[in-house]
Amino acid sequence: MTVDEVMDEVLPDQLFYEESGGGVTFSGGEPLMQEVFLTELLQACRQQGLHTVLDTSGYASTDIITKVAPYVDLFLYDLKLMNNALHKKYTGVSNESILSNLSMLSRTGEKIIFRFPVIPGITDTTENIRSLKEFIVSLTYRQTNNQGVSSGGDIFEIHLLPYHSMAREKYRRFSKSNRLPGIPDLLKEDLIPLKQEFESIGGKVVLGG
């Protein structure tokens, strides 16, 4: 599709966006893998006064992040594993650019909601959660102080995403091997202790998202 074709689908619902306070969310897959098309779409939305959200893993060059950031109103930014070796093991790539890009976006004052997929035995370990909390607090403390914002109330927002196994049927249909067999699904209720843990360090915590 062309940019104009996408906008022809988006604009008829503009009244609903205005009434609800919503807008356009770019998700995937990874939208930043199509950065040229993404940038053009973001610019078109900005010209129409539409609120834009980018749902991303942050795995891209800093140049690409810098290019799209002026046209993004809100980043939904995934954080999975803080240990680089474990990140490589489970995702196949390093987390260095992911964390670097997030630090850059925080320094420049972009609005960010963190998203943390809670996977039993993988991302919910004591060490990973401790490192994740320390990293988020270091970003948000610096941002609130740099912007002169009061640290009272919630200083960051994080969405805890409970693991589910809905993809198992997809693996079967496409003859793909499931690399996470036997991991139990989580309910939102299972994440209440983790929710309280993030709330204790100043976060607004949403279960799901």
Report on the biggest sheet: 6 strands, parallel
- Helix-strand makeup class: alpha/beta
Oligomer: single chain
Fraction of residues in β-strands: 15-25%
- Tell me, what's the shape? globular
**How many DSSP helices?**
9
What's the number of structural domains? 1
Low-confidence region ranges: 147-152
Distance between the termini: 28 Å
Average pLDDT value?
91
CATH architecture: Alpha-Beta Barrel
CATH superfamily: Aldolase class I
- Relative helix content: 40-55%
CATH class: Alpha Beta
In angstroms, what is the radius of gyration?
A: 18 Å
Order of adjacent strands in the largest pleated sheet: 1-2-3-4-5-6
The CATH topology label is TIM Barrel
Number of strands: 6
Elements, N to C (H/E): HHEHEHEHHEHEHHE
Task: Tell me what the structure shows.
There is one protein chain. The longest helix has 21 residues, at 126-146. The protein is globular and about 45 Å long. It has a six-stranded parallel sheet. It has one domain (3-207): Aldolase class I (TIM Barrel, Alpha-Beta Barrel). It has nine helices and six strands; from the N terminus they run ααβαβαβααβαβααβ. The chain has helices at 3-10, 14-20, 35-47, 62-68, 84-91, 96-107, 126-146, 168-173, 192-199; strands at residues 23-26, 51-56, 74-78, 112-118, 156-162, 203-207. The protein is 43% helix and 16% strand. By secondary structure, it is an alpha/beta fold. The two termini are 28 Å apart.
